[in-house]
Amino acid sequence: MNFNERCYSILRKVPRGKVVTYGDLAKAAGSPNAARAVGNAMNRNPYAPQVPCHRVVGSTGKMVGFAEGVSKKIKMLKEEGVEVMDGNVDMDKYFYT
DNA sequence: CATATGACACTAT
DNA sequence: AATAGTGCCATAT
Questions:
Q1: Is residue A41 a contact partner of residue A5, using CB atoms and an 8 Å limit?
Q2: For strand B, which residues in window 18-77 of chain A come within 7 Å by CB?
Q3: First-residue to last-residue Cα distance in chain A
Q4: Which chain B positions come under 7 Å from a protein C-beta?
Q5: Which tens digit of pLDDT belongs to each residue from A21-36?
Q6: Is residue A75 within 8 Å of A81, Cβ to Cβ?
Q7: Which residue out of A53, A56, A57, A89 is catalytically annotated?
Q8: Which residues pair with A84 in a beta bridge?
Q9: Does the CB of A47 fall within 7 Å of any strand C atom?
Q10: 3-state secondary structure string, A75-86?
């Protein structure tokens, strides 16, 4: 099981309407400082619709990027009930602990 | 095997 | 408060 597959597995557990940060995801995957690598894994995302890669946001809840565009990402999150204001998510309410 | 790349995070201006 | 620069990790080429 390589690093990214671990990321996908973990990310897949994230419930709808919640979000996680790259850093925490990386930490959960076993490499606390591999936030960047996580983003890379999401970018290639071999498990396209299976993994909720759109539920991954920056450490501050700020939208960082998305393969199809941040706009799309925000749209999807809103569809799940996550409030996104000016590209930012309310961490205290939607962060997956 | 070595170099380059990127959807991050943090510190210093 | 906003912007720029630096460090880190795993993958792809």
A1: no
A2: 21-23, 35-40, 42-43, 45, 53-54, 56, 58-60, 64-67, 73
A3: 24
A4: 5-10
A5: 999 999 999 999 999 9
A6: no
A7: A53
A8: A89
A9: no
A10: HHHHHCCCCEEC
Q: Name the pTM for this structure.
A: 0.94
Q: Is the dihedral of CA A35, A17, A79, A52 positive or negative?
A: positive
Give residue-wise pLDDT tens across range A38-70: 999 999 998 988 999 999 999 999 999 999 999
Give residue A78's pLDDT: 97
CA separation for the pair A95, A1 (Å, rounded) = 26
pLDDT of amino acid A49: 87
A53 in active site:
yes
Instruction: Give, in Å, how far the C1' of C9 lies from the CA of A81.
Output: 32
Residue A60 has what pLDDT? 97
